UniProtKB/TrEMBL annotation:
SUPFAM superfamilies: SNF-like
Protein name per the record: Neurotransmitter:Na+ symporter, NSS family
Superkingdom, taxonomy of origin: Bacteria
Lineage: Bacteria, Bacillati, Bacillota, Bacilli, Bacillales
CDD domains: SLC6sbd_Tyt1-Like
Amino acid sequence: MQTKEQWTSKLGFILASAGSAIGLGAIWKFPNTVATSGGGAFFLIFILFTLLIGMPLLLAEFFIGRSTGKEAISAYKDLAPKSKWHYVGYLGMATCFLLLSFYSVVGGWILLYFARSLTGSLLHAGHAYGDLFNQTVADPTFSVLAQFCFMLITILVVGMGVKRGIERSSRILMPGLFILFVILLIRSLTLPGMMEGVRYFLMPNFDNMTGAAVLNALGQSFFCLSVGVSVMVTYSSYLSKKESLTRSAISVVSLNVLTSLMAGLAIFPALFALGMKPTEGPGLLFVTLPAVFEKMMGGGVFIAIFLALFLFATFTSAFSMLEILVAGFSKNDSLKRKRLSWVFGGLIFLVGVPFALSFGVLSDVTIFGKSLFDAADFTVTNILMPLGVFLIAIFVGYRFPRERLQEEMKSEPKLWRKGLAVYIFLLRYIIPVAIIIVFLNVMGLLPV
């Protein structure tokens, strides 16, 4: 049955869009990046780059989707007919497919740890949490089964559609996420000795700031908003023409920065208060934090809350990644949507199985010296996403029909309409150069 998918409200769109972005960057990668890039100085530079680089890119995807009312591939075909620009939509779909195939592995780990926290089997005095994590990810049965359960829930939600599935779940998960954050913040900020962690996170100290850390902040500014994979093109295509895109972009960016702030204030004060130092990679979530909560009064309850928070954020991102694939082929056909949710979800699960096994039975299989999981992560984060961001900036800066862009701007505040020329300048000259610099940095081609 052909029915035009649409958000029931602007709030639903903002919560779903923020949910997509938050799971990808604000909680999972942000604390790790802060811990290795200078603390408060990094956070300040990250906010500046998010406003100057990330938000214009987010708005670019909003313009593409809302102006056409179509999913990514059809949107580019509409705006640039008889050209190859629609391959940007295919690039986004391929990126999301690969990303979700290993992202679901991490989702499975979180789901498994959350189940353990509910049974009370996760925290034990003197527990070797590093060994526990290594045993968990190396166990083929646990890893694959957890990944399967994560993908099953994702498939069921996306199969129900934008209104009944994604928006309804986002309206529950996103407020729940912030409520859990507030609980954790209260606990973390009432620990003796927590001020050292607060100072580390919020007090800029540029003495330790390096060129590499600045470039990390620049890269994080667009990775954390889920831009570059055309997810936001698809999500904005469901938005009413009456809504302001600039205000929606500001809301999504504000929620993302707020989440990053809350994540830092929930994690770093607790770490420093209990005499522990920040670590990078999955160790922060699965090794360091369980050790922190073990030392807290009521730690079992708080670790369950923290893992639930991570799980909520992970699911809202997963929904958006599967949605771009389903929307690209279902063409608003509800029967096709359900079938394609299972088809793409099943394929993503199967492709993800080797990534789940790359920490155990397939640990000896490497690509350019990296495990299968790390190779996929590197390909998406350092190649496909920067390429997608670059192409979207160039498309809106040079190829987007100006009359249609001006039409979209009619519903925006007067200040934003007057700033259109500045916006186009950013997309044409500043942002592409910034993206190229980030790409060269992550590829190790810059002497920083």
